[in-house]
């Protein structure tokens, strides 16, 4: 696949054009027409329905993003967050003007400090509730424990997942988790070059040991 990228930058705007095969992807960003506001216009040729305009507003304690598809019946996306580094509230909503329905409606609250992050989220238009907890036990070895509980109101199903991580050395990280359905997984990740990793992972169903376990190898290279 042919790939080419070009860009133009000025003090108030920038434009980037990427050629991916037969697709021409264009993004134009107008930076701060007024304090804190950014406007982004993007489209892909020849897809006539890909046009989209996005408005972003950033403040020290708040941020919003609104995007509208440039079609006859656009999808409108809105996201906002309010708070500080300790406590924050967020929401994301999508409205399909063609069907006059909200396709997405999520809300969350989170608390964090130097070694702990806790959050509570309502997703799927109020059908699922997710509570999560992450605590750093040892900063030197990056040892941490975490848990997540999900409740589906329509299905009345609860999913509980617990996990942990530990650095074997400054370049090697070990992670593992298991949920209440018996699925356990683990991975070991090695940084063999700055920002480049090699990961070996595996997953097994502890309630069906006779089934074959899943094993994966993943390299990640970053320039």
Describe this structure in words.
The protein is an all-beta fold. Helix content is 0%, strand content 71%. The radius of gyration is 22 Å and the shape is globular.
Task: Name some characteristics of this structure.
223 residues, globular
Summarize the structure.
The protein is mainly β and 223 residues long. The protein has no helices and 17 strands. It has strands at 3-9, 13-20, 23-31, 37-45, 52-59, 62-69, 75-83, 87-96, 101-112, 116-123, 128-138, 143-152, 157-169, 172-179, 183-193, 196-205, 214-220.
Order of helices and strands: EEEEEEEEEEEEEEEEE
Task: Determine the fraction of residues in helical runs and give it as a percent range.
Answer: under 10%
Estimated structural class: mainly beta
Please state the CA-atom Rg, rounded to the nearest Å: 22 Å
